[in-house]
Design brief:
alpha/beta; five-stranded parallel β-sheet; four-stranded mixed β-sheet
Length: about 240
């Protein structure tokens, strides 16, 4: 999926964010889509942020609705039953950074710039930045970034765990990883994503128990039977998603 508002550095207005949310809803239910890559058109920006001019005219109720739309979009990236990958080309600021961190994996071009500069506008990150950033980079790093509004380059983003790798051209790397993931069992990937999303929240013992139960139940799936048989027979597995 490519966000294409190059005249505005792919900044998100209501129409673009709504279309993105709706497309993600469709992809979440589309079994033929095994992996979703999110990127921005051109080389200057992934998503430079939200439409500040639009935001400047919002009242409280409208701002809550705008926040809810962003949160729903991020939730879809984070929870849909297939891997999501952000290919970050250029600026990923504010809402753009929040969409990137909602994805399962993030790859950055060497020119990428990431950050949460909302504090400079007298507001806070509103699409998950105060929560997901800490899960990736640790609470101390997250507080420093959201309190100061400082923007980091690709190499620092890699060092602090904000991205998984830096690679040019970034879309090639994202497609390479997507092809690898598409060769895996969709059933196993969905269950691992569900379990991994629970790792930093809830009761640790209960989460481990859920993993154990899921591990055992998975042995009834066609994919598990195929994967184990393929290993024994020294061949590549053919996963069908059941």
């Amino acid at each position: 999926m490519t966000i294409d508002r190059q005249e505005a550095l792919n900044a998100l207005d209501v129409a673009t964010l709504t279309e993105l949310r709706d497309c993600l809803r469709e992809l979440a239910d589309d079994e033929s889509a095994r992996v979703v890559i999110l990127t921005g058109a051109g080389e200057k920006a992934f998503v430079a942020g939200a439409d500040i001019k639009y935001m400047s005219g919002l009242d409280v109720a409208q701002a809550k609705g705008w926040g809810a739309l962003g949160h729903e979009t991020g939730r879809l990236l984070e929870t849909m039953p297939k891997p999501t990958i952000a290919a970050i080309n250029g600026f990923a600021l504010g809402g753009g950074c929040e969409l990137a961190v909602a994805c399962d994996l993030r790859y950055a071009a060497s020119s990428a710039k990431l950050g949460q500069p909302e504090v400079n506008l007298g507001i806070i990150p509103g699409w998950g930045g105060t929560q997901r950033l800490a899960r990736l980079s640790g609470l101390g790093v997250a507080k420093e970034l959201i309190f100061t509004g400082r923007i980091v380059d690709a190499e620092e983003a890699l060092r602090i765990g904000l991205v998984n790798a830096v690679h040019d051209p970034v879309l090639d790397k994202a497609r390479e990883v997507a092809a690898l993931l598409a060769s895996k069992s969709p059933v196993a990937l969905k269950l691992m994503k569900d379990l991994a999303n629970r790792a930093l929240g809830g009761d640790h013992a209960a989460n481990l128990g859920a993993e154990g139960e899921t591990f055992g139940e998975l042995f009834s799936s066609e994919d598990a039977k195929e994967g184990l048989a393929a290993f024994v027979e020294k061949r590549q597995p053919n996963f069908v998603g059941r």
